[in-house]
Specification:
two-stranded antiparallel ribbon; 6 strands; about 230 residues
């Protein structure tokens, strides 16, 4: 994808984690959450491909789960097990306990995007990054990574109203998060869609609707500010 030029062959890639400079920085800062939640480190990592390749666009170095604490869901990352959430959400009561996104808790994201716009000085597009509602829901329901996704698969059939309510809430909040990133300096936002292998046709339809709601929210930022927008990947 080319974001600045008309060359249809131009491709946007995220090389950060594959570069020697990133691996060296990771040795100095072994905590992934530190690397993805400290403004200075986010900016430095995001700019590594820019300094090496001068691509048309650079993607914010961030994590799918980054906004969860701002919604009331705490998590840690274990070196072996991966993300481990403090609590799961598997009932309507628990869904209703989730609050609107607290932007003060993701301020490092906004500050990083603002600095990146200044550093690149319109020589490349700045892309924000969020996880899709479905992807976030798999972690929130399972309590972390999973190979079987038993709980969310069961919920699809035994408690679809809970899943729908959770996806609806996450869609609204991620749309607000997209707007926040655009207001902070992102010119468009990548929406990462993962865990589709656990969906049935019926659930995929619900996922499609939640994703359309999310990108529509991003497009509303586009219309209000004159820049930005969201796209699924």
């Amino acid at each position: 994808m080319s974001t600045l030029h008309e060359d249809e062959d131009a491709t946007l890639c995220n090389f950060s984690r594959y570069q020697a400079s990133y691996r060296e920085l990771a040795k100095k800062y072994p905590s992934f959450r530190q690397r993805s939640e400290v403004t200075e480190l986010i900016v430095e990592i995001t700019l590594q491909p820019w300094h090496s390749f001068r691509p048309d666009g650079i993607i914010l170095f961030s994590d799918i789960l980054t906004p969860l604490p701002a919604l009331g869901v705490q998590f840690e990352i274990d070196d072996i097990k991966g993300p481990i959430l403090e609590k799961t959400v598997r009932s309507l009561e628990q869904v209703h306990q989730l609050h609107d996104i607290d932007f003060a808790k993701v301020e490092f994201v906004g500050n990083a995007l603002t600095q990146l716009r200044q550093e690149v000085n319109n020589q490349a597009a700045i892309l924000g990054f969020v996880g899709s509602p479905w992807t976030l829901a798999t972690y929130i329901i399972e309590g972390g990574s999973s190979s079987l996704y038993k709980n969310i698969k069961s919920m699809c059939h035994s408690a679809p109203e809970v899943l729908d309510a959770l996806l609806s809430h996450l869609s609204d909040q991620m749309a607000s998060y997209i707007c926040y990133q655009i207001d902070s300096g992102a010119q468009c936002v990548q929406v990462s869609v993962a865990k589709l292998q656990v969906t049935s046709c019926r659930i995929y339809h619900s996922l499609f609707l939640s994703s359309r709601s999310l990108t529509a929210g991003g497009d509303s930022c586009h219309h209000e500010s004159g820049i930005g927008g969201a796209g699924l990947t």
